Amino acid sequence: MTYHSSSRFLYYTELFLSLPKTVVNHGVAAEVLQEMKDATAKFFQLPLEEKNKIRMASGGFEGYGQVDGVARGETMDWSDQLVLTLYPAQFRMLNSWPTEPEGYKEAIEAYSSEVKRVGEELLRSLSLIMGMEKHTLLELHKELLQTLRVNYIPPCSMPDKVLGLSPHSDTSTITILMQEDNVTGLQIRKEGEWVPVKPIPNALVVNVGDAIEIWSNGKYKSIEHRAVANEGKLRISYASFLFPHVDVEVGPFDHMVESSRMYKKVKYGDYLTTALKNKLKGKAHTEMAKTGR
């Protein structure tokens, strides 16, 4: 097969198909990353009444609020979040966007535009590596749906009693994550153990989501991961999710099926609705999508 995309993205795409990988040579200016971090830190330092001006509505998914996760015995989620739809632009709920601090909207715009560019290039590379034309995955996304979830995990005096985010896999096609440069909090489940993903300054972590696992018939699995709290350090993470179009059928591509189909075909919108109802529960979403369930 002839690869027509950027060699650096083909290289990293091949790597992150099996594990989350850190991408350094992504082309996003360090200033754009830092301005996003600085403005976000200022937002979460605002008085609660100011942040509550964009509080999530009951049953809603956009704005400021607390993580709606699940208990794990005595372990509970310990974080606030800001969730926004970025693209398509006409889907934005601007009444859920922060108006303070000054310049935050512009920082979000600049950062998310660059993440969209990186994500589209990665999807082209993924298409080639999965044995398809380079525009195949982008066409399945139609108008690319991109959302941002900022997780604010404050210091905790009993970090063993809480989690920043409960274990889960992402329902997206891919997720592009920016972490704090000097605070480790992301962990992935590998061979039954939780392994920390140490941050690298100005790098982006790329995760395979559930959609790729289903399309690949389980060859490339979405990674179960969680976020932990720290006793003495604040951690903020920035997860950008790239989703298929809600009307697109998600099921194993014919050329990825070697013997039997491991997953049912379903409209992505239906898959996402079911996953949101079940909240964060490990790999339960993809298990429910398997044939025979």
TrEMBL record:
SUPFAM superfamilies: Clavaminate synthase-like (SSF51197). Residues 143-244 form the Fe2OG dioxygenase domain. Pfam families: 2OG-FeII_Oxy, DIOX_N. InterPro entries: DIOX_N, IPNS-like_FE2OG_OXY, IPNS-like_sf, Oxoglu/Fe-dep_dioxygenase_dom, Plant_2OG-oxidoreductases. Transmembrane segments: none annotated. PROSITE patterns: FE2OG_OXY (PS51471). Keywords: Iron, Metal-binding, Oxidoreductase, Vitamin C. It comes from the Eukaryota. GO terms for molecular function: L-ascorbic acid binding; metal ion binding; oxidoreductase activity. Belongs to the iron/ascorbate-dependent oxidoreductase family. This is Protein SRG1-like isoform X2.
